[in-house]
Amino acid sequence: MREEFEAYGLPATVMLTIGLIKLALATALIVGIWIPSITAFAAAGLAITLLAAVIAHLRIHDPLKKSIPAATLMTMATALLIL
Questions:
Q1: How many domains does the chain have?
Q2: DSSP state string for 20-57
Q3: Where are its TM segments located (predicted)?
Q4: For the whole model, what pTM was predicted?
Q5: Residue 19 CB partners (closer than 8 Å, separation 6+)
Q6: Residue whose C-alpha is closest to residue 58's, from 2, 7, 11, 22
Q7: In this structure, are residues 45 and 25 in contact, taking their beta carbons and an 8 Å threshold?
C-alpha cells in the first residue's frame, strides 16, 4: 500500500489515517450486527471512502484490475446501505 500512496503523491501519514478510518468503519459495520442503528453510518462511510479509492486509481491511470477490489467493496457497502 505504501507504494500506491506514493504513486498518488500522498505521505505515509495519510495512508495510516485512511487505514485507521477504514478499520474503524469496518468495525462499526460488524458492531452493527448487534446495534443496527450504526449500520447505515458505517456503510455510508465505507462507500464514500472506497469511492475515493476508485477515483484515486482512475486518476493515476492504474490498470482496471487494481480498482476492482475497491469497486467491489464499494458496491457491497452501497447495497448494504440501500437494503
A1: 1
A2: HHHHHHHHHHHHTTT-GGGHHHHHHHHHHHHHHHHHHH
A3: 12-35, 41-60
A4: 0.84
A5: 1
A6: 7
A7: yes
* Per-residue model confidence as pLDDT tens digits over 48-69: 999 999 998 898 888 889 889 9
Checking 5-14 for CB contacts under 8 A at 24+ apart, the result is 7/60, 7/62, 8/56, 8/59, 8/60
Q: What tens digit of pLDDT does each residue of 2-17 get?
A: 777 777 788 888 889 9
C-alpha cell at 27: 468495525
C-alpha cell at 6: 506514493
Amino acid at 17: T
Question: Whole-angstrom distance between the N-terminal and C-terminal Cα of the chain?
Answer: 31
**Separation between Cα atoms, residue 38 and residue 29, nearest integer Å:** 7
Exposure of 59 by Cβ count < 10 A (0-12 exposed, 13-18 middle, 19+ buried)?
A: exposed
